[in-house]
Queue: 3 jobs
Job 1
Amino acid sequence: MRAWVDEIPEPDLDSHYAKAVADLDEHDLSMLAAWHASLEVGHPIANKEFLVNVFPSLGENRREALKIAAGFRGEEAFDAGVAEEQSLEMVLPFLSEQRCRELAQECVELYCWDRLGSEN
């Protein structure tokens, strides 16, 4: 999900954020508002309209806000039974070839780390 957000063109961030926020429940809205509070962008309200309206003022933090909101949606999809393969099928077509290669390399590294064991 985070890789997909990195690939979104700047002019499209607002609309994707609005879509992500529209599907959040009250708990996720509260979590997102708490993150906004850490940026000191005013007194955040766990309200969809407020969060969407304040989004442009986040500046460099807009992508991170979208990653958080999209991550909540991804967690909900997973809880609803959407398989990882389905998620990948939805996201991969929007990624550049270079980004897909980077993700594949990261996946192999994580797999090896898990299978070979680590100090953690």
Job 2
Amino acid sequence: MELTEESKDWKHIVLTPIKEAEDGSNNYNEFKRKSVFELDAAGYWKFIDGPDYNPPQIPTLQPTQEMRGLDLAGNPTTIRIPGNEAEVQAARDKAKIWLDGDKKALAIIAKAVPVEKLHVLEDCTSAHTAWKALKSEYEPTNTLSALTIMQQIIGNQCKPDDDPVAWLDVMIRLYSRLRDADPKMMPDWDFAKHLITLMTQNDSWLREAEAAGQTFSSQTVIHRLKDEEVELGIAPYITSLNTIVATSKGKGIVARFFRAGVQ
């Protein structure tokens, strides 16, 4: 198992650094997604996980032992219990290329970990165990953050006196943070429905659209909303948010474009 020419220069491979925010959230999911691409392109992902992950089997070392005892005649003697040093060394020699690559992959990962969190890798003897340790350290925190953000999205109803432009901007930012924390927590289709139902209390047309089998993405909804902002003259680059007075107009935005039909 040989490494590519690019992977031999492993010291120059720099992964996205793991960072933690003051609120406890982190960018682990960004680190994970980008690192898989980086490591795979350089030929190191196979030492960590994936379909080509196939670490060599090294027998557990059983050292040769010598014990003092008595022979059948009662005389002092030394009993030698053979170990498997030769077998272990032969297995290591055969796996040298793989083990060298694994050490380099571990070093590449360690460079992306904050100094204050290096203790997470303290007992890791391979790139695979290091990857699992980081997952265990950071993903639970991200899940809690994602749940909090999802609750904020679900509870962020656009009220009659709210600024619809500012409301949409907040929703987009919240969903971006949610995707960073846990990309599987809320599928795009669910977010699109939340945008619609939280913008207007009349969701009968949404149920009709679902019954008709219409599908749409959150980007479709967002683009239609922004088109309506321009049409109504409330887009940020048309008028200052401080001068928006047509707040009630935003309530009919989604209903109107949906009744017109979403492809």
Job 3
Amino acid sequence: METVPTILVADDHPLLRAAVLHALRDGLGQIRVIEAATASALQPALESHPEIELVLLDLAMPGARGLSSLVWLRGERPELPVVVISSNDHPRTVRRVQQFGAAGFISKSAPAESIGQAVATVLDGGSWFPPLTAERSEEDAQLAARLAQLTPQQFRVLMGIADGLLNKQIAHQLGLAENTVKVHVTAILKKLECHSRTQAAVLVKALEREDEA
């Protein structure tokens, strides 16, 4: 019996999620969809549904910092393909999404049938990007390589640092001992080659850089 693919649709707009669901069913037939409306909902969704085979990800969900959700997903489940669906389809954004590990990019202004085609292609092991006209960025390549060294938990701690939180506040937010957070911060600074929390926060800021269409 053929298995039904399970797809996580992560977007904070209910109408967009409904439109994506309709497009997926039109393009793929029978599918199972799990929904997430915030960046913080991604982790429980993945833990509750290990059978998820692909994530359709909006970059601008509440709790996300630019490409942070994409980077977190790639660290948490590197084998799980992520297709970004975004209203920002500037060539530079598309190139950045590719460099930070996405398997595809769909503009929210694209025809509905593109969603089904893109997901089918990526589920088959391919990739789906519009023609890439922006140059590859060496700066992004280096940042992606640095962030890839972090464990998912260290990446969560890094997001807390970027929010200006103290170790005690990060510990409370993540349910960790304060000393554990301190150990993570030391490891994060070493892996990112940063001398201070401020430098680490600046690196995260680079994930938020947006290009105007």
